[in-house]
Amino acid sequence: MQAETFRREMPSPLAAHPLNLPVAFGTTLSNGLGLVLVEDRRLPLISFRLAFRSGDANDPENLPGLSDMMSHLLSEGTETRTSRKIAEEIERLGATLSVGSTSDFSTVAASSLSIYAAEVLELLADVTLRSTFPQNEVDLARENTKQLLIQQRAQPNFLASERMAGVIFGTHPYSSISPTEEMLDALTRDDLLSFRVSTFIPNSAELVVIGDFQHDDLMGRIDELFAGWDRGDASPVPSPALPKRTERTIYLVDRPGSAQSNIVIANEAITRTSPDYFPMLLMHTILGSNASSRLFMNLREHKGYTYGAYSNLDARRLAGTFRATAEVRTAVTGASLQEFFYELDRIRNDAVSNEEITNAQSYLSGVFPIRIETQDGLIDQIVNIKMLDLPDDYLRTYRDQVNAVTTADIQAVAQKYVTPDKAAIVIVGDAAEVTDQVKPYSDNIEIYDTEGNPKDSVG
């Protein structure tokens, strides 16, 4: 039997392999457009990302969701191509073309076989610089988005995210997570055209290319397509400070008859460039990032309250949050809060074990190379580095930064940013069933309907 002991022991982690990162060529065109070119000839593929330092946080106050609408409509017609023509060209080339926006930046992405690189790059430039937002496409998007808003209001996850964003971010642009019906009714084609011209500017953008290409040929094509693009005003948009929380408050969104409660417990946390980022990442990994973390093991494996309980580290350019979340049975809403606060207090007050920190470091160091082994994975990482102002050597030093974190570092950031006594607790569920359950966890309970209107307060 002793010879079989190895079957019950976890094998030691393998030694870390060196990262074989390709050398990137970087330069800037005379109009301010940044270029990052990475040759990768392993496969006859090429990927493009044109990224802009303008995202949802840059939406005008009276037009929340404008960046999302512009992203959706950008490839629906240009000065020389209809929406159908664009779709047919993409299909003919076997290519992909997509547009998206986050809180902090927007991207126009394309990929194809490398033999079609010139054609795909021209298509990317066309939708970026010469999109016209045809009125029929605007009207269709408007109506489709209105229907989407109706669907979203039936989803507890959306209601929780909406209430949490408003509570944590206040009047900051991050507080808006979707368009409103009023915005959609007010939106005009001219709004989209002027917003594209003012935000899609070369001196606030980076073009990242990874794949199989000839350097001189690609540079010539980029110069041909983008050198005549005029600079614009790249001044940062001022944003207000986040509201300061002084006490724990429960925000209960009432969904009568709901069989479960969606719980989000949040505090303001860090920006993406904070020196506390890597200690926070390790703390988050131990507390709730995956199915072996503390929250998951407690609320699912030990208590059986939920299919999964997690934490979330949301570090953006201007602000961030740290959240703990779960969807639990209505009957155990209060009991789930008790376990959440037990784990939040424990990560603050007790040093994590050497085994936990070693396992977390091994996990993060091991999964990192997997994330950058494909063209799409690597190009996404480079875009994040450029858009969020991370150090140029971020990829090369990532594992060193992870492995340098100590148990003391983790406890220090937990005590600084995990503050249960000042937490915002959002619960989407049946108020009649859960209000009495959650009263022990806050003297202040605000109740809203699913449209966001106040219904009642307790406390």
Would you give an account of this structure?
The protein is α+β, with helices and mostly antiparallel strands and 459 residues long. It folds into 2 domains: 24-226, Metalloenzyme, LuxS/M16 peptidase-like (Cytochrome Bc1 Complex, Chain A, domain 1), CATH 3.30.830.10; 249-458, Metalloenzyme, LuxS/M16 peptidase-like (Cytochrome Bc1 Complex, Chain A, domain 1), CATH 3.30.830.10. Helix content is 42%, strand content 20%. The chain is built from 16 helices and 13 strands. The strands form 2 sheets. The protein has a 7-stranded mixed β-sheet with strand order 9-10-8-11-7-12-13, sandwiched between helices. It has a 6-stranded mixed β-sheet with strand order 1-2-6-3-5-4, with helices on both faces. A hairpin with a 5-residue loop joins β12 (445-448) and β13. The model has no long low-confidence stretch (mean pLDDT 94).
Topology:
Blueprint: E1 24-28, E2 34-39, E3 45-52, H1 66-73, H2 83-93, E4 96-101, E5 106-113, H3 117-130, H4 135-152, H5 156-169, H6 181-186, H7 189-199, E6 205-211, H8 215-226, E7 249-254, E8 260-268, H9 277-288, H10 294-302, E9 306-315, E10 320-329, H11 333-349, H12 354-371, H13 375-387, H14 394-403, H15 407-417, E11 424-429, H16 431-438, E12 445-448, E13 454-458
Parallel strand pairs: 2-6, 7-11, 7-12
Antiparallel strand pairs: 1-2, 3-5, 3-6, 4-5, 8-10, 8-11, 9-10, 12-13
Helix pairs in contact: 3-8, 9-15, 10-11, 11-15, 11-16, 12-14
